[in-house]
Amino acid sequence: MTQVAIVILNYNGEELLKKFLPSVLKFSSGLKIIVADNNSSDSSVDFLDKEFPQVEVIRIPSNLGYCGGYNYALSRVEAKYYVLLNSDVEVTENWIDPVISVLENDVSVGAAQPKILSYADKTSFEYAGAAGGFIDTLGYPFCRGRIFNSLEKDNHQYDDCLPIFWATGACLFIRSDLFNKMGGFDEDFFAHMEEIDLCWKLKRAGYSIFYQGASTIYHVGGGTLAATSPRKTYFNFRNGLSLIYKHHSFGQLLWKLPFRFLLDWLAAFKFLWAGTASSSLAILKAHINFVITFPHEIKKRRLLKNQIPGFEVNRKYRGLIIFDYYFRNRRNFENLKW
Question: Residue-wise over 186-203: b if at least 16 C-beta within 10 A, else e?
Fold first, then answer.
């Protein structure tokens, strides 16, 4: 069994592979590197066969999205640790060992991530993960180094190694046995917030998630869906509702779910006021889908509760990040009151 397998999910990303795969090969010597192709319609696979024959290719018969694509590919990979790496990432020297060491030194650590900086501005943190993910009491995610769309500069304030709530799917280090034990990603999510769901399951099962600031990568971001895409808005809001429904107790849901619906509608009106009616409509569609599929959500929640009893987990921000951000002007992680 290979110790570490780096698995890159690709969909029509030939240009990204040309640009970023060389850095992965350069700084991951001796490791198994796999590209899982999500039934691309471009010439990605032909390009890999010709230019990078040392890279193993797993051909997925249809585009299964981020969740389904990785579930399909990783079921065919034997390794102690999986590294799920986005195709739009430039890695750096010694990016693997510090994070793997965290997992090797403590069997209770289920998953981890490196420092995520922006490829476009390498002095700033990047949206998807930054210096480790957290979540507030209503299930809104944020990061050290990134709260909503406010990105901090990297002044080495987060060069530490510490527990977090969730690790980014852009560069997720995870024990293979735990990935499989947790059932992989929830394929209903398709893309966006699935890594938070998986990390939440790990935490409920008693494992911790870590950030290792001694490892750095640079992420372009928006490779799956652009930040302004209504489809991304749809997945974020739909998956956000599914997330809190799966992972909160009935007593908490009695007030959190209605409150979350209310805040979502305020966001929809904000989008409408800003002239982005398509994003407002995406929120409406997300809510309709959640209501229509609610019997399925009940079943998933029940199955998860039977598998992992209990709901309380640590490293959750007890405040309301929306209130702190918009009304208290707390735009940096270090300004939050834990």
Answer: bbbbbbbbbbbbbbbbbb
Dump pLDDT digits (tens) for 42-77: 999 999 999 999 999 999 999 999 999 999 999 999
Q: Are 66 and 7 in contact (CB under 8 A)?
A: no
> pTM for this structure?
0.95
Q: What is the pLDDT of residues 169-224, one digit of tens each?
A: 999 999 999 999 999 999 999 988 999 999 999 999 999 999 999 999 999 986 55
Q: 128 near 160, Cβ under 8 Å?
A: no
Nearest to 92 by CA among 114, 125, 70, 121: 114
CA–CA distance, 49 with 32 (Å, rounded to integer): 16
Is the separation of the CB atoms in 270 and 250 below 8 Å?
no
Residue 86 has phi, psi (to 5 degrees) of: -65, 150
